[in-house]
Predict the 3D structure of the following.
Amino acid sequence: MIRTDPSVLRRMQDDAILQIVEETDTEIARLQALQLRCVAEFNRRNRDSQSVVAELSSILSITEQHASAVISAAEVLTTRLPRTLQLMDEGTLDLFRAMKVTDATSWLSDEHAAIVDVILASRLPGKNANQVRKATTHAATKVDPNGAAQRGARRRSERRVVLNHSASGVSRLSIDNAPAEKATAAYLRLDQAARALKTPDEERTLDQLRTDVALDLLLNDDGGGEERAEVFLYMDLATYLGLNNDPVEMAGHGHIPAALARRIAAGPDTALRRIITDPLSGQMLELGGTRYRPTPDMDEFVRVRDRECRQPGCTRPAQNCKIENTRSRSEAGADTTSTKPVTFCPRHRRLKRRADWHYEVSPDDSLTITTPTGRTQRSSVPPFHDPRPDSPPGGPQHR
């Protein structure tokens, strides 16, 4: 009744509403437990982990990194941590908190993980994610103190730099698993430099200054000057001239505000290229400019057209991808032996070459992918501008 008539909620008392919130949370946890059991079973039936990750990513519309984490959690909970999974079955622990347990026990042996699982069975209900993580870490360290020390050394060896794009033209750049002493020293250097710049006339906050100093040091070594990087921006002439403020696409990132795109385009090292498009569909017809050379520039044409890896959900910029000849079919749909060039990142090039994954390019350059279980995905080349209203039905659509 509530689903079909939201006005029912407006007539309910606060305690009744909160009871529904609590009951739905319990049911969500139970359904997540069932989903994990299914994921674990499907994973065990298929030997190729990359294929399983790609298929799960497709049906759940999540990133492959997230899909991999879900598969890992499903395996651990159904084998090493059955009592923790039982808490999910009972509706007292959801997937987010359960994954805190799987992460904090990943370094333990099966025997030690089983002990921690027993210890935590009565300690986790009612705790939030941070409390679950702390309780699990404490129990794991108590059970295997030597292993905890070894894990610290191993985590340092897994240090890496991670880039995550967000909306509105901003991103998150982080250094994961850095040695604590070096990370602390690096932060102190940034803080000292930022505070030295924080004069009475400086409008930037300390957080903004620390960020700007960090980026300047990374890009220039001396903490000054403008950033230097290669990015692909897709901006129409009217937006470039400031006649409108339509969002601009940055390959590998997504859409950014027009003002930010114009600032990037005004950089001293910016190179502008003319792209001729079909006025009806918005698809690219020709890459122009003084550097135009028909044969050598064919790879560049494909990369500019595709923007990113063509595997649905992958945001690897096309300039960091390889071009792979992909089976195509005729206008009438008949199978042929012809191929068309398509951009794929290294991971998805390997997936494409598997015998049980099928890739086919249509005459409009859209890509149809058939997974081992028979599900299909479609990746279309995004138009460079909105198609005209009289564009033929079934024309290219945004990915």
Q: What stands out?
A: The longest helix spans residues 14-45. Confidence is low (pLDDT under 50) at residues 223-228, 289-296. Residues 90 and 258 are 50 Å apart (CA to CA). The longest strand covers residues 335-344.
